[in-house]
Amino acid sequence: MNEHGGYFGKEANQMMDFSVNINPLGVPQKLMDVLVKELPYLIRYPEIDGITAKKTIATYLNKEVDELILGNGATELIYLFARAIAPKKVLIIQPTFTEYERAFQLSGSQIHYFSTDEKDDFKINKEALFNTIGSLQPEVIVLCNPNNPTGLLYHPEELLPLLEVVKENRGYFFVDESFIDFTEKPSLINCIEEYPLFLLRSMTKTYGIPGLRLGYGLGNRGIIQKLNSIKEPWTINSLALKAVPILLEDTAYFNDTIEWYREEKDFLWKALSTIDGMKVFPSDGNFFLCKLKHRNGSDLKNALAKKGIYIRTCTDFKGLSDQFIRLAVRSREENQRLIHGLREMEL
Questions:
Q1: Where in the sequence is the signal peptide annotated (predicted)?
Q2: CATH number of the domain bearing residue 189
Q3: Do 98 and 161 fall within a single domain?
Q4: What residues pair up with 144 in beta bridges, in sequence order?
Q5: Given Cys at both, which of 29, 34, 104, 264 links 109, Cβ 3.0 to 4.6 Å?
Q6: Which residues of the chain are under the pLDDT cut of 70?
Q7: HSE on the CB side for 251, CA within 13 Å?
């Protein structure tokens, strides 16, 4: 199980949770106002496939509605893709989000890993990767971009040679772009028609709504048809479907998020970099991967929890030891308290 989040009640209000990578600006006020008015209509069934919301997202992205699929959070679509494609061999570029492995294991796939190296800041050795693909011939290659937990992002031009290889091998390239909105950098979205590519997106992270569960996937018509052919009906609740146009139209909230994130990420990067007992890896995500030099993450997590600060250890990420922790970018006050707490730990 993932080792983050899950605080409820009084304890949740007392904790500063740096373990979850969601927008700390909170739920947009416009959305809350609309959802309250929608509560009496919970007596009605939602659209069976969320077609109205799909059309809204497709129009927003300038894509066709049959190139898009909705999910009850991005995680549903990870498992749905694994079941629909059911590949014999999967190559997962690691360290990365653990749900990919579990989803493909449940589909009966053989899981193989391509490990990136800490000394290279976890950047992919492209020659080694192509050699691995050539010898293994996986039907699916999985990449998180920007990657969770390293924060590493690849520009579309850097991934085109890999897309060509996947196309030649008649495989699939699964790319998780759940954190792409925080990067202000280009997506692979313009490649979905030409290549066997499936892109995963999460509205949960961008708009701070993990409790509402809302994600979507993009791919060519053939891929989306495969997923829709086995997708259960009514997986998206009516409140989540109602949220889609409200969120996409709230450009002020999105712009405020990007402006806030740009400033706070820079502040946290500089502050963390002054702590001698910790190495901070460069990140394009809304979080930082850090390596402790003299103590383990579990001990630090327990010590900080006593100060009301919750962090993410990385022991469940393949290729990372208990020396690694992941820290989300939070508000200025919270970030300052984190830095103060870390300095008190005498790392």
A1: none
A2: 3.40.640.10
A3: yes
A4: 176
A5: 104
A6: 1-14
A7: 1
Assess whether 203 and 301 both reside in one domain.
Answer: no
Residue 42 in domain: yes
- Chosen domain end from 215, 249, 283: 249
- Name the domain boundary from 249, 267, 292: 249
**50 and 162 share one domain:** yes
Q: How far is CA 207 from CA 30, 70, 223, in A?
A: 12, 16, 27
How far is Cα 15 from Cα 9, in angstroms, rounded to an integer? 11
What is the C-alpha to C-alpha distance for residues 255 and 261, in angstroms, rounded to an integer? 10
Q: Tens of pLDDT along 3-44? A: 555 444 445 556 899 999 999 999 999 999 999 999 999 999
Condensed to tens digits (0 to 9), the pLDDT of residues 136-181 reads 999 999 999 999 999 999 999 999 999 999 999 999 999 999 999 9
Conformational region of residue 117, where left means phi above 0, alpha means psi within -120 to 50, and beta covers everything else: beta
HSE of 112, CA atoms in CB hemisphere, 13 A: 16
Taking the C-alpha atoms of residue 347 and residue 342, their distance in angstroms, rounded to an integer, is: 7
Please name the residues in contact with 252: beta carbons below 8 A apart, sequence gap of 6 or more.
none
- Burial of residue 176 (CB within 10 Å: 0-12, 13-18, 19+) is buried
The set of residues, in sequence order, having a beta carbon less than 8 Å from that of 329 and lying 6+ positions away, is 24, 261, 264, 265, 268, 286, 287, 288, 335
The residue range of the domain holding 20 is: 9-26+252-344
Largest CA distance in the chain: 58
